[in-house]
Each structure stands twice: as structure tokens, then as C-alpha cells.
Description:
Blueprint: E1 13-19, E2 30-36, E3 42-48, E4 55-58, E5 70-73, E6 80-83, E7 87-94, E8 97-108, H1 111-116, E9 120-126, E10 131-136, E11 139-144, E12 150-151, E13 161-167, E14 172-177, E15 181-185, E16 190-191
Antiparallel strand pairs: 1-2, 2-3, 3-4, 5-6, 6-7, 7-8, 9-10, 10-11, 11-12, 13-14, 14-15, 15-16
Amino acid sequence: RSTYWRVLDDVRSAWQVSSLPVHHRQSSDGVWLLHEDAQQVSRMSYFSLAGTNASVHTLTNIPLTSNATLFVTSHEQYAGALISLSDIRVMQCDVQDASSCSIVRTVPFPSTLRETTTAIAAGLFVADLQMLYFGADSGLHRLDLQTFEIDVRVNGINDSVSSLAATNKYRTIFIGTAAKLWMEDYAEETHR
């Protein structure tokens, strides 16, 4: 327990803390939280560390249905995306105010994905491809940010995906599973 920060009475528990996009004016002043409030309601909030008193600002335009939701920060066109067990909600925020955000697009999962997914573990925006990759217990999937269509089990990867990372220099996406590390070279569209 930190003695520096005051106790946040309105935050019962937090399942995810995310940095703001680097282009956001408040990126060094706070973080976004996915949390339960004192009434056990799932919320997304901006936790401001600026000034003498830390404060939590609920994003009232961003409803959450459960703590099974994962937030992925984007450093490009969108602020980020909320990935639940049934859909992806793409979000934009005012670049001056991290508590002023809205959902700009909701993309429902195809029925095959809804029926086989019980957990979302990872997400990654790949700006070069204009794609949002996400890993779940049902495999590797992606959302095309131009057409807003979801590709299920990209490259046939249907193992439970635990983590995702990318390197822009080598144009490679790394997909971590319990059995294997997959690498997708998207410059040549090959995977190994």
C-alpha cells in the first residue's frame, strides 16, 4: 500500500490500468482505469495525477458490462478500443480532455467467435496495417480498421493467445501462446 496516494474510496477494484496515447495532451498526467466502483458497477475512468489532489473522473459515455473487458490503447487515429466477449467498441477522445470520450464504432463478434470465446487476453493496434489484433482463448483474431470486419483465427492460430507485441522496424507481430511463440512478418505476410 502506497502512503503517497490517498485511498480512492470510489474505486473498489481495478482490473486494468492503461496509459493514454502519446499524442494526448494529458498523457503524462494520468491513466485510464477499468474498475468497479464502490457500488460494484463496472466503469472506465480517467485517473488524473496532476495537481495536488489525485482524482478519478468517470467516463459516462463509455459503458462497461463486465470485468471481462480489455482496453487497448492506440497511438494513432483512435484513442483505443474496448474488447468484450461479444464486441469491439472503438473509442475516440478529446485530445485535450482524457475524460471526454465516446464510442465511434461498435463491431459485434461473428457468432462463431461469440460462441467459442470466454476470455480476451491481449490486444495490439498495428498502425502500418490499420488493424487491431486481439488474442483470446479461441485464438488470434483481428479487426480491419478500414472495413470494420473481423477476421477470425488469423493464420489458423486457434491456440489460446496470452500476449501480443510488435516491432515496427522489422514489421513483425509476436503472438504468445502456452505451446509456442508465433511470429508474423507482415512485410512479407508470412508466419512461423
